[in-house]
Write a structure and sequence with these properties.
This protein is about 50% helix and about 15% strand. It has about 250 residues and is an alpha/beta fold. The protein has two domains: about 160 residues, Rossmann fold (3-Layer(aba) Sandwich); about 70 residues, no CATH class.
């Protein structure tokens, strides 16, 4: 059964048109061609085809909040000023405890779902658009259970792998996986290391990871500031690096 048809979802608002907002718009065109997508971005004037004013985008059946983590509270409140009572708000932020708390604080009585898609435009391109096995983490929701189950089934039918965990567990794991990838990637860029003609396969994999995150400096900083587990992960890494370095002396 088509979740969007079942739930009378005809319009989806995307708030924010950075790398991930643009990517979600592309995915929406692919998987839901019959749905109208309304993008709101402060960088683009409304053309009433792709880009819309905030009120119009916020009054969609589903609204996906894609703005930066540091702006999430401000933008969520702005959206909810205009959103319809039956609108479903979807949080796709990279940190989950902070944004889940915001959903619980401001969406009282409203429908929402807190998720983190564990992929982006770079991984999508590297897999040539094949999304089989791409993970979507769900940490919290305020939906009727049958609606949530239909949503899960719909995205699973596309090939996505839905993983459920608490927001705190997500943030702890993310600090030791994705954040470390960003941290090492930013360090390699800062140090000026680049690909060469004699790269080993392992170095190619390392540089693939670096290139997938090197342009997300604002996201990197926001995750560090809003995920309480990142500081401990960085300290562990630095201590281990110092121990390895001392072992070479």
């Amino acid at each position: 059964m088509n979740f969007f048809m079942y739930s009378n979802v005809n319009t989806v608002g995307i708030i924010g048109y950075g790398n991930f907002g643009k990517f979600l718009y592309e995915l929406g065109q692919r998987f839901f061609p019959g749905v109208e997508f309304r993008v709101h971005s402060r960088r683009f004037d409304p053309d009433h085809k792709t880009f819309f004013d905030l009120k119009t985008a916020a009054q969609s059946d589903v609204v996906i909040l894609c703005d930066g983590i540091s702006e999430y509270e401000e933008r969520m409140k702005a959206v909810l000023e205009h959103a319809l009572a039956e609108t479903i708000l979807i949080d796709v932020a990279t940190v989950k405890k902070h944004t889940s708390d915001l959903c619980q604080k401001y969406c009282d009585g409203r429908r929402y779902i807190s998720t983190h898609p564990m992929f982006g435009p770079v991984s999508y391109q590297k897999h040539k658009g094949n999304i089989d096995g791409f993970r979507i983490v769900v940490t919290d929701y305020a939906l009727k259970n049958n609606t949530y189950q239909l949503l899960k089934e719909k995205f699973a039918s596309f090939g996505f792998n839905i993983i459920e965990m608490t927001a705190d567990e997500h943030d702890e794991r993310l600090a030791e996986t994705l954040f470390l990838t960003h941290y090492i990637g930013q360090s390699i860029v800062k140090a000026g290391f680049e690909r060469t003609k004699i790269d080993t396969l392992s170095f190619q994999f390392l540089m693939d990871a670096v290139e997938s995150v090197k342009d997300d400096k604002k996201l990197f900083e926001d995750v560090y500031n809003f995920n309480p587990y990142c500081k401990a992960a960085v300290k562990r890494l630095h201590a281990a690096q110092e121990e390895v370095f001392q072992g070479l002396q």
